[in-house]
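User: quick one, sequence for these tokens?
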């Protein structure tokens, strides 16, 4: 679909780059597949901020997506491809042979009229869904289940995919985009292909207002605060307090490991790559 730029009529349009939406459905979503979505603005049931820098954002309707692909051995036809404000990749409306319609994540290069199917030992074709044990090594996949029947959890963002790099008994070895290599039981399902809208990573917001539409509020630097508000605050002129960067609560902001899930450590073969 490519990127869309604007003539520099204003300071914001000079730098704005967004994803073009040619080929996407221009009408409204299927009403029965949408539910109202209320923003919490990062606050809990007591009204206290638990997630900073969150705003309400633009009003949106949540689209119900089929992450499970439990309708086996029945072909479905892609009717249209739509924009979804709740995720970065596009979604597609498919119709099964029995007349049922559902929304699914749309992979790259899938077209209106294409047929897809879920089941055991199906054709290795974009959009088809099957257990990991039936997918050849080196195949790009998305919407991967962590456990059988749990629904797709891995690789659901725009332009993402993971790769099957081998097998180990009843487990498949998966290489994630982060560089992490982990084992997932081979009965878990995954969908063939790379997800749509890979140009999402190249957009430029262009103006503060577009961030507010997304529910992102401004971020204040710690050094601009008072000592009572942040460890970096206070001092004559700019100062970081003579210490390494930390959060407002003193937690290191330079690569401190916060993962605390020993139960699944045994499935991780190699940790993700460190940030530069």
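Assistant:
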């Amino acid at each position: 679909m490519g990127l869309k730029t604007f003539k520099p009529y204003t300071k914001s349009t000079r730098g704005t780059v967004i994803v073009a939406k040619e080929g996407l459905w221009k009408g409204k979503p299927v009403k029965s597949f949408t539910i109202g979505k209320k923003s919490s603005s990062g606050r809990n049931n007591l009204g206290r901020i638990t997630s900073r820098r969150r705003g309400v954002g633009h009003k949106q309707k949540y689209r119900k997506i089929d992450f499970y692909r439990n309708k086996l051995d029945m072909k479905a036809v892609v009717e249209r491809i739509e924009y979804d404000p709740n995720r970065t990749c596009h979604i597609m409306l498919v119709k099964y042979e029995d007349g049922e319609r559902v929304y699914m994540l749309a992979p790259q290069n899938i077209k209106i009229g294409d047929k897809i199917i879920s089941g055991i030992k199906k054709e290795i074709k974009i959009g088809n869904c099957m257990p990991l044990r039936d997918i050849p090594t080196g195949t790009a996949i998305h919407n991967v289940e962590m456990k059988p029947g749990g629904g797709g959890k891995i690789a659901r963002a725009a332009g993402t995919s993971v790769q099957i790099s081998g097998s180990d008994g009843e487990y498949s070895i998966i290489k994630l985009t982060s560089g992490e290599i982990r084992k997932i039981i081979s009965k878990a399902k995954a969908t063939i292909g790379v997800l749509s809208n890979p140009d999402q990573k190249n957009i430029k917001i262009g103006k503060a207002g577009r961030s507010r539409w997304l529910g992102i509020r401004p971020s204040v630097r710690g050094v601009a605060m008072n000592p009572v508000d942040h460890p970096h605050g206070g001092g004559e002129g700019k100062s970081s307090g003579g210490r390494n960067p930390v959060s407002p609560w003193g937690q290191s902001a330079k690569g401190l490991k916060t993962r605390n899930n020993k139960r699944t450590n045994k499935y991780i073969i190699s940790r993700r790559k460190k940030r530069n």
